[in-house]
Amino acid sequence: MTHESPPELLPLRPIGILRSPFVDKFGTPRQPGLAPAVRGEIQLYPWVGGSEVLRGIEGFSHLWVLFWFHQAKDRKVVVRPPRLGGKEKVGIFASRSPHRPNPIGLSVVRLEGIRLERGVTIEVSGLDIVDGSPVLDIKPYLPYADALPDARSGWAAAPIERAPVHFSEEAELFLAPLPALRESLQQILSLDPRPNSHHHRESPAYVMHHGGVEVWWRLEAGAVWVERLGGVP
Predict the structure, then answer these.
(1) Per-residue pLDDT averaged across 12-24, rounded?
(2) Model's pTM, two decimal places?
(3) How far apart (Å, rounded) are the C-alpha atoms in residues 68 and 79?
């Protein structure tokens, strides 16, 4: 038996673009649903067919979003997952790394609403997708088919650990009129978004971009300390 070469091209065309507060990979949750306060939207392209393509979608609480990892620059055979502390390697198909043969992502998000002014826009939350990602498809999430309580999680079975997050007085003053932003930052930073290579050495100060806001923070004694914020959300 021989394995034939695949066709070079497939008829794939983005149906829209995703907008989120995540400017780049740093500071983006590594899985969906870990920061439920984060809001974003999917802007559909006119060629898809207008609002008729969403008929009946309001009856679903969650959606699957297939998208393109447009910032992934290289393909890898093995990767070092953050859940393993960046020490152990697993095959790319045993991970959710963006560095795939075809950089296609799959995330489940909560459906928050539909806007029809200036085109068709789907409002979502709990996303883990970088701003500007091309959206390839949208499907309804079906609990009876998609949630399998007896499924095994392999090397990713350990529970998610969260660090306490503290805001300086200056940061609290900035966030006082922005409670939704404060909640989003607390959820994101509690997951310790540092690169794998930084997990086993003294932590420097970091600058993270969230929407139009720059966030200066550091990790000390197992806790995240937000020192100051700047910019316009």
Answers:
(1) 95
(2) 0.90
(3) 19
